[in-house]
Design brief:
By secondary structure, this protein is an alpha/beta fold. Helices cover 33% and strands 21% of the residues. The strands form nine sheets. It has a seven-stranded mixed β-sheet with strand order 5-4-17-16-18-19-20, with helices on both faces. It binds adenosine-5'-monophosphate-propyl ester.
């Protein structure tokens, strides 16, 4: 938001970046944006016909009659897996490498499009044999692997809706999602391997299924990753490699309507219960393809690498669907950026000649730190000349990290694309076009053509540029969330709140637009959602986990800015017994951190826990979170505390344990 300061640091796309770009120059960007303004349906309809092979063409682009439950290309029919695999093989590209998989230990496996199609078909046939059919929900709890992508694609092929649960979530979180989505099958692995350590996924899955209400889960299919020991229930469990052994590698795709739910992905909201974000097939796939072409300027020769996990939306759109739908060659990585050392990403870029690289600010910050401490893992030590475009996603990127990334990874040559979007948006929303948009560190720049982003106040009225406000999207777009699984009312209340007039999509982020350039800078969440290392966490989810512990009476969770993880979780806790101090407090804090790890997953563990006799409350008993945020940061309390009933508590909570 330091606008004058930022203006001095504008980076024009180089002549090289502009030459031959899919969108070359700002004129071309403006022309596209103007096309969308002029004829919204025509614009999207044209893109959809080009990006997707339709089994049956659609006759209508957008139906707003049941707003905000918009539908796109509704009478069109397609299959996502057909678009990702068959069509490339049919057009003679079966021998092209689809995935270059690098395992944690460095072992590399390559799969061509023809091989991928055969594997997906065999697995889809095996699923079919186990009764899995169109409309069923299948939970996937797998490590980063070719098999994980095969599982997603096989579901898509059958018209079964997948719901991938990140491998770092606990048995309890997995259970909650299996039950909410009503899964008939669970696909998992014996173990996950990351950074030389294993995690017993099958065991966690067994624990989840034993928690009750999972009777509808008829099959558990297990990918053998390590051969580690697992418990086995012969009535339910089957090895992935065994059930595909005798299957045909031909499987006719199930043609589905464009609105058919391709997947449901859970994400945190401001209440305790995660939201099952439901995506469509047609509109979603269109935007996955289009943003690959626009934001990453994807070309046939590119080697694309997105470092996200398939358990998050980024791994859905920019690993499992976008690159495959284009027939791209992509790198998929099992491990972590710091193993065996913090030069792993740079080594892999060089080894696989990656040209388009996409990662998270938190990774950049931690690798900067590592490079500063140990010259041997500095990106300068590696040959990164293959890189053409480098991107970031997941959280605001501080200008320092952005500049380091551009300089040391991008060689001052590659455009940095800071992409703002969300689980709910399906794909990029605000991002530079590398061959067109001049970039500014810390700004995601301009909405992509067709995306009508704006900044408004609490009543939905526009705010002047330069003044912060609420980020909204004024018109529906094809890849948007369709509903919250099983809870359409929550969908309406969360994303189309009546306070904003009911027609604006509420993103949940704050933003400010530059008066001169119209560039957006995201200022962070405006609700009770935290962003820790690019992972979205609800404060209420963590609070619910804490109060589920027998010793905890009350808990309030807030975020604190953190130099590496972006935000850190700080929990204020009162116990059902006297406030612990010293050694005892430290012990208890550890117990509670581990407890949260078990309840939700290690990503949700509070960095710090402070114990108090009480929490700061108003006379009506409402916890004053803004005060807790100041205390967590170690700031002096300058806010008005006149409504606070127990001001003396601030002193007690202000001190870290
Ligand atoms: O707060 C924004 C932040 O991440 C949130 C979305 O999180 P999730 O649904 O998990 O999806 C992450 C991957 C798309 C947003 O509401 N966020 C995401 N990208 C950016 C960002 N904040 C600032 N700049 C970004 N580029």
């Amino acid at each position: 938001m330091e606008l004058p300061h930022q203006k001095q640091r504008t980076f024009e796309p180089s002549a090289e970046a502009q030459a031959g770009a899919n969108v070359a120059g700002m004129e071309a960007y403006r022309a596209l944006a103007a096309d969308a303004e002029r004829d919204y349906a025509g614009f999207w309809g044209g893109l959809a016909r080009e990006a997707i092979d339709w089994r049956k063409p659609f006759s209508k682009v957008l139906d707003e009659s049941a707003a905000p439950f918009y539908t796109w290309f509704e009478d069109g029919e397609l299959n996502a897996s057909y678009n990702c695999l068959d069509r490339h093989v049919a057009s003679g590209h079966g021998d092209r490498v689809a995935i270059v998989f690098e395992a944690d230990d460095g072992t590399v496996t390559r799969v061509t499009y023809a091989q991928m199609l055969a594997r997906v078909a065999r697995f889809a046939n095996a699923l079919k044999r186990r009764g899995i059919k169109r409309g069923d929900r299948v939970v996937i709890y797998m490590p980063m692997s070719i098999e994980g992508i095969v599982a997603m694609q096989a579901c898509a092929r059958l018209g079964a809706t997948h719901s991938v649960v990140f491998g770092g979530f606990s048995a309890k979180s997995l259970h909650e999602r299996i039950v909410d989505v009503g899964a008939v099958a669970l696909i998992t692995a014996d173990e996950q391997v990351r950074g030389g350590k294993t995690l017993p996924l099958k065991q966690i899955a067994d624990e989840a299924l034993a928690m009750g209400n999972c009777d509808v889960v008829r099959s558990v299919i297990v990918y053998r990753r390590t051969g580690g020991e697992v418990a086995w229930d012969t009535s339910r469990d089957a090895w992935m490699h065994e059930i595909v052994a005798n299957e045909s590698d031909i499987c006719e795709p199930e043609w589905v309507g464009a609105e058919h739910p391709l997947f449901i992905l859970y994400t945190s909201g401001s209440t305790g219960k995660p939201k099952g974000v439901q995506h469509s097939t047609g509109g979603y796939l269109l935007w996955a393809v289009q943003t690959m072409k626009w934001t990453f300027d994807w070309k046939r020769e590119d080697v694309f690498w997105c470092t996200a996990d398939i358990g998050w939306i980024t791994g859905h759109t920019y690993i499992a669907y976008g690159p495959l739908a284009l027939g791209a060659t992509q790198v998929v990585f099992e491990g972590v950026p710091t193993y065996p050392d913090a030069g792993r990403f740079w080594k892999m870029i060089a080894d696989h000649q990656v040209s388009l690289f996409y990662t998270a600010p938190t990774a950049i910050r931690s690798l900067t730190k590592a490079a500063d401490a140990d010259e041997s893992v500095h990106p300068a030590r590696y040959d990164l000349a293959s890189l053409r475009i480098i991107g970031t996603v997941g959280e605001p990127i501080n200008p320092e990290a952005w500049l380091w990334y551009r300089r040391h990874v991008g060689g001052e040559r590659c455009p940095v694309v800071d992409t703002w979007w969300q689980t709910e948006t399906g794909g990029h929303m605000i991002a530079p076009l590398p061959g067109a948009t001049p970039t500014v560190p810390g700004s995601c720049t301009l909405p992509l053509p067709g995306i009508m982003a704006a900044v408004v106040d609490e009543t939905g009225q526009s705010v002047p540029d330069g003044q912060g406000g609420i980020l909204v999207v004024k018109r529906p777009w094809p890849s948007m969330v369709r509903t919250i699984w099983g809870d359409p009312e929550r969908f309406k209340a969360s994303y189309y709140p009546p306070e904003l007039g009911g027609t604006l999509y509420l993103a949940g982020d704050g933003a400010v637009r530059d008066p001169e350039t119209g560039y957006f800078t995201i200022t962070g969440r405006i609700d009770d959602v935290l962003n820790v290392s690019g992972h979205r966490l609800g404060t209420m989810e963590i609070e619910s986990a804490l109060v589920a512990h027998e010793l905890v009476a009350e808990a309030a969770v807030v975020g604190r800015p953190d130099a590496t993880t972006g935000e850190a979780v700080v929990a204020f806790v009162t116990l059902k017994r006297a406030r612990p101090e010293g050694e005892e407090a430290e012990q208890l804090a550890k117990t509670l951190r581990d407890w949260v790890g078990k309840e939700i997953g290690p990503i949700a563990k509070p960095k710090e826990i402070r114990f108090g006799d009480n929490l700061p409350k108003t006379r009506s008993g409402k916890i004053m979170r803004r005060l807790l945020r100041s205390l967590a940061k170690g700031d002096a309390i300058v806010q008005d505390t006149s409504t606070l009933e127990n001001p003396e508590i601030l002193d007690q909570l202000g001190r870290a344990v």
